[in-house]
Design brief:
By secondary structure, this protein is an alpha/beta fold. The protein folds into 2 domains: 273 residues, Rossmann fold (3-Layer(aba) Sandwich); 113 residues, no CATH class. The chain has 24 helices and 14 strands. The strands form 4 sheets. The chain has a 5-stranded parallel beta sheet with strand order 5-2-1-11-12. A 5-stranded antiparallel beta sheet has the order 9-8-7-6-10. β8 and β9 form a beta hairpin. It is globular.
């Protein structure tokens, strides 16, 4: 999913996009008023069966009991079942939900955090790998072989994955006791898992279950059965939700935002599993079809009867599916998800499911001790990280004294062009544009010279070079934000699981934060 421009988040927080959402940002009182008529007992029973099978701790089981109560409410978030818990923002999302549930819980409001694992997702290329940054500042990519185009909840657990990953990690320079406890987390979870997504769920339960996190797997048959009324309604009008999504996309584009979801002609918001492959269902006005086969509505209803997990929602229907069976009052999302939720208001209304409050997740950057020292030396903060290349240039020139020289030269140039412009206007006004173009060219040349000078300074000073390389490796690996690339295990292996999670749990539930380990 592509990253939405930063201004979208700002526009949302300023309530400039109120026509696309049901509850204005941070209006927790309105969110708490949402009352969903759902089957709490069957939901809780199915959740508890799966939780016990995957050795969920007692705090998670107690939270499921709370969810079964009539006045229960949920803070929902979710993510794909990535290798080694996926990117670090998986933890940020879950902890945002946990912290917000804690904030809103009181004698009148029984609020629990719920994590929806996207086990129906079939984009295995996104979840078959994880990145670790070892003590030598070398990026390690770990991979497992997953069957392509297959829902990860249907991919059977393979012991070879564990052996492959554990062997590679054991050869790296990680120390005890954190190496053993991280490997134990992987191994003990793998023993419980029947599927690839089970492995993810079992690990997440051990890490965040003690904070009352409930994990839901939509591929679980007893959970999938609860979706049936919604899917029947979608099959009755199979293209209407797609039309609403495309309508919202057009409205957003008028406002200058790029739509996150687009539905092609004839595309529904449902997938059908055929021979373990997930195929998009399409409708031509008379019949349903995939790339392989045609179906009547009766055929699809019969499939729902036989195996409800065979039909799954596309991105444009999944949030409605979640809130159809859960007492959701708020959904925690990342920047891209926030943008695609803005296209779903009318889809919620179509299915008579009230759209919850949409809560942007917290962001967290983990700073290891050497990075903390380097940032203090160069007087850097988190806001500088996104523009590290520019900041690096400025700091090197500043520390060497060349910044003052370039600033003075630029000021002299600007003054010279200002005087020239005054004289040219007197002589021949038609030459003003030529002078302006020349000034722009000189400014560009000046900036190029600054950049090349900074690079020359960096080449001469190996200490600074190594320090900035370290910042880039740690904070912008592969030119990505740290939390979007590195696995939580990158930090578990260095600092210990409990230490890392305890540091995350100290964060507020919103905003941009640093964690110093």
């Amino acid at each position: 999913m592509s990253q939405q421009p930063k201004s979208f988040l700002s526009s949302y927080k300023n309530n400039d996009l109120k026509d696309f959402f049901n509850i204005k940002p941070s209006d927790y009182n309105s969110a708490l008023q949402i009352d969903r008529k759902i089957n709490r007992q069957d939901l809780a029973q199915a959740l508890k069966e799966n939780a016990k099978r995957l050795a969920a701790p007692k705090e998670a089981l107690a939270a499921i009991d709370k969810l079964a109560e009539d006045n229960s409410k949920a803070i929902l978030t979710g993510q794909q079942a990535g290798l080694l818990l996926g990117p670090n923002y998986t933890i940020s999302k879950a902890i945002t939900a946990i912290k917000l549930a804690q904030k809103l819980s009181d004698k009148e409001n029984n609020v629990v955090p719920v994590f929806w694992v996207a086990s129906q997702d079939h984009d295995t290329e996104e979840v078959n790998h994880a990145y670790l940054l070892d003590f030598k500042e070398e990026l390690q990519k770990l991979n497992v072989d997953l069957t392509a185009e297959t829902p990860v909840g249907k991919i059977a657990m393979d012991e070879a994955w564990l052996e492959q990953i554990a062997n590679k990690i054991s050869k790296l320079d990680y120390k005890e006791p954190f190496l053993s406890e991280s490997l134990d987390l992987m191994k003990n979870s793998a023993k419980l898992a029947k599927s690839y997504s089970d492995w993810f769920i079992a690990m997440l339960y051990q890490v965040l279950g003690p904070y009352g996190l409930i994990i839901i797997d939509p591929m679980q048959p007893k959970i999938a059965e609860l979706f049936r009324p919604l899917f029947e309604a979608e099959l009755a009008k199979p293209l209407l939700s797609s039309q609403f999504i495309n309508k919202a996309a057009a409205e957003l584009e008028v406002l200058g935002f790029k739509a996150q979801i687009g539905r092609a002609e004839g595309a529904s918001n449902l997938f059908l599993e055929e021979d373990f492959k997930r195929q998009l269902l399409k409708f031509d006005g008379k019949k349903f079809y995939t790339d392989n086969q045609e179906y009547s509505k009766a055929d699809l209803l019969a499939i729902l009867d036989k195996n409800p997990a065979t039909i799954t929602p596309a991105a444009g229907l999944r949030p409605i599916t979640q809130d159809f069976i859960l007492p959701t009052i708020a959904t925690v999302v990342g920047p891209g998800e926030l943008a695609y939720f803005s296209q779903l208001k009318e889809v919620f209304e179509l299915h008579k499911v009230r759209m919850p409050l949409i809560q942007p997740r917290l962001t967290a950057t983990v700073l290891e001790p050497p990075v903390i020292r380097i940032m203090k030396k160069f007087d850097l903060d988190l806001l500088d990280i996104a523009n590290l290349e520019k900041i690096k240039q400025e700091k090197l020139l500043e520390l060497s004294g060349y910044q003052d020289i370039f600033d003075k030269n630029l000021a002299d140039l600007e003054k010279s062009f200002e005087n020239m412009l005054t004289e040219i206007q007197k002589l021949d006004p038609t030459l003003v544009k030529t002078v302006c173009k020349a000034e722009i060219h000189m400014q560009k040349t000046h900036n190029i010279l600054k950049t090349k000078s900074a690079k020359a300074l960096l080449e001469k000073n190996k200490v600074y070079q190594n320090q900035f390389e370290r910042l880039e490796n740690q904070l912008l690996p592969l030119n990505s934000a740290q939390e979007r690339l590195l696995s939580p295990f990158s930090f578990f292996l260095k600092f210990g699981i409990d230490n890392v999670i305890a540091a995350f749990m100290q964060l507020p539930f919103e905003g941009n934060h640093k964690i110093e380990l």
